[in-house]
Amino acid sequence: MTKVGILGGGQLGRMLLEAATKFKVETHILENQENCPARTLCNYFTLGDINDFDTVYRFGKNLDCITIEIEQVCVEALEKLEEEGIAVIPKPAVLKMIKNKITQKEFYKEHAIPSPIFHVTDSKEELTKYIDFLPAVHKVGVGGYDGKGVELLYSKEDLSKGFDRPAVLEKMTSIKQEIAIQVAVDQTNNIVVFPPVEMVFDPTLNLLDFQICPARISTALQKEANQIATNLVRSFQSPGLFAVELFIDKSDRVWVNETAPRVHNSGHHSIEALATSQFEMLWQILLNEKLGPTNVQQPSIMVNIIGAPGYTGVAKLEGTDSITTKETFIHWYGKEITKPGRKMGHITCLGIIPEKAMETAHYLKNTIRCISEAKENTPKIV
Ligand code: ADP
Known about the structure:
The protein has 382 residues and is of the alpha+beta class. The chain contains nine helices and 21 strands. It has helices spanning 11-20, 53-60, 75-83, 92-99, 101-110, 219-236, 270-273, 278-286, 357-367; strands at residues 2-7, 25-31, 44-47, 65-68, 87-88, 118-121, 136-140, 150-153, 167-171, 175-185, 191-193, 197-201, 208-213, 240-249, 254-260, 300-306, 313-318, 328-332, 337-338, 343-350, 369-372. Strands 10, 11, 12, 13, 14, 15, 16, 18 and 20 form a nine-stranded antiparallel sheet that branches. It has a five-stranded parallel sheet with strand order 3-2-1-4-5, with helices on both faces. Strands 6-9-7-8 form a four-stranded antiparallel sheet, covered by helices on one side. 40% of the residues are buried. Residues 116, 137, 139, 144-147, 149-150, 170, 172-173, 175, 178, 201, 206, 245, 257-258 line the site of adenosine-5'-diphosphate (ADP).
């Protein structure tokens, strides 16, 4: 049986393992949190640091294939494993380039991929050189995620919010809509593209809040975005599943924001709403199987279940009794502790009416909430 290792055991790893039941595969997880979401679903669990060279190398050397569920891993160990003949998907060279937003943006520039123009900065002080370039978005090179490590700078008064480490300063786009397109590339270079989805972000947390499929955009824009995402992913020259995040600006121009070289939050609806889920698709790539179709079976909306503000502690889900339709699917990631802003699960609702998508999303978000037993700052009764 093919032995496949996954670096990281969070919710993406967990959903990948849920999909693994359809395949002949022996699954291995490396993660340093013992009670992580993927812990109970894998065949073999190794407790260890995905950023440590020896740990990753030892974990990978007896496997047939290795993949990731998070970019922040030790790429050098993956390079060595690749040299020794282990199939590393995506290729370590691509992972290394994407992992740092500076090299990722430089790659877009070199390959003429439309993406907002940018400068590279090494310190906060250097930002004063770019006052005429504002409004702009400052993004740390390495280590940012879910909007952490991103600051919007409108005027020189905002420069103090910038980062004092290597970062990109990107021209601010007047965004009309944000969309994402997943592109799958198998080990013999066949490509399959998922239908574009629309992403609606929480303005305070900068986290993906809702996702609507199909995206409410014209056929012409769909075609253009598909073309850009496909060209970009072809230029990576690597098998894998890639999520390309794009902006549509107020003049209907399409820009690449960034790419994730793995399964992604923007593709969770695919479990119920598409002919092949993003997780099955990644297994098809890893196990050299034919890639499945990606047609939309039902329009859908996906809502993240995010730890409610003011609650930290043992997680509890409320409001599920109010959901009576068979078309609503609640995914719980099995994290014991909730805290404000933590991704705890998601809900996919099928058969939505596109004009009412936002209404449905708000209803689900306000009805199903992740709280804890005791609200913070509530005096304990003794
Ligand atoms: P992360 O990797 O943390 O998700 P992103 O680079 O995707 O960070 O930025 C987070 C959000 O910030 C985007 O979804 C978008 O709403 C906003 N943003 C990022 N870049 C720009 C830009 N050039 N112009 C306007 N808004 C932007």
